[in-house]
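Q: Protein A?
A:
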Amino acid sequence: MRLSTLLNGFATASAGALLATTAMAQQSLEIVGHPVAQGMGFQPAVTEVAREVHDLDHMLLIIITVISVFVTGLLAWVMWRYSAKRNPNPASFTHNSPLEVAWTIVPIVILVFIGAFSLPVLYKQMEPPAADLVVKVVGNQWYWNYEYPDVKMADDETTTLAFDSFLIGSDLVLNADVEAQLVAAGYSKNEFLLATDTAMVVPVNKNVVVQLTGADVIHGWMMPALGVQSSAVPGRLNQVWFNAEKEGIYFGQCSALCGKNHAYMPITVKVVSQAAYDAWVLKAQGGDVVFSALPAPMDVAAAD
């Protein structure tokens, strides 16, 4: 009797550990794009557009730093050199043509130089290539709706997948229940306010076109690591695109003030292999839209 009790207890503990391990490991994807406490700089760029945006920002930072240092130094020198103490008799000239020409031409040259680099990046952002996948994203107070039109089924017919995406933790406070929900979804408590119950799933190295609109007020769909940000405006359809080069989990956020729960409207995008994406589509057609990187645990009958 005692041996049987011990064996049953061991089996129960083992099963619990297995389920916990499965919950923690169900997402073998690396969390790539996410904010870091006291972090400096950008999230890792995983698209060509994001890298070009980062390069443009770094170039502009150098330019504005040089201009700021020059103007501040010039102002300090003028204040010292031409103070009333050193110049009791103020100058009486009214203009300086060469200087005026210089401070007109130099800013024009700087702006043309900046435009030569920024306009191609802007054009690339706004002109998507041929789409491998189109996803319609609708902003709501305060959650996202994702719609995959024209998804191919096993019989080559097409269907539409649609689902909502909510913040994990509806009471908006991290407690034991919310932490358990995060663990069950494959996250940790560090992903609170970032992780959602469902995610936008896309294949790696594919051109994904995102069509954005709003159902009530203006929202903003922003994914820093993907180099994507645009407004979701009711009655309008905005379009952005990305081609993620690395599998992983990426977090974003609504970037437009949309009401009292604006801060609790995160975005989760999972970039997976083509095979994993195809498997998810088949599973989602049955109603289960939650992406799981590992197969679900099997029920094994206990031996008599």
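Q: Protein B?
A:
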Amino acid sequence: MSLLESLPKPEKEGAIVDFAGILELLPHRYPFLLVDKVISLDEETKTIVCQKNVSFNEPFFSGHFPQEPVMPGVLQVEAMAQAGCVMMYLLHEENKDKRPAFMGVDNCRFRKPVRPGDILTIEATETRYRRGLGTLNARVSVDGVLVSECTIMAMMV
């Protein structure tokens, strides 16, 4: 049985891994869990698509910025990293008892602001993986419009 098959089955259609499964995969918890569900995983192209619903109740909005709330870019990068870690768990069974470690980020760009009510579509593609060290290209979009992108390095330890 694969790791994906062992996770709780999503209660609603439109996800292959829902919030309950994410909680089993990632060590992150509120307020730092930034992936709500996995929409798709393509093992051939090594691409995952996840979703994050951005609520006005997110704790960072109270100070960033009170009159014009914007999701901090570093949290968009973290959401991309978490999506990538979910993919590293699902594609590489040897990682099931390991924890992700963020190693670095390159070529990071923020294109548009993310606001309360937005639904982030987080896409990550693994470009290299060897001995637990992965490199992935990631992007966040809202309503099909690119809002941020970067290259992330992570290691399973």
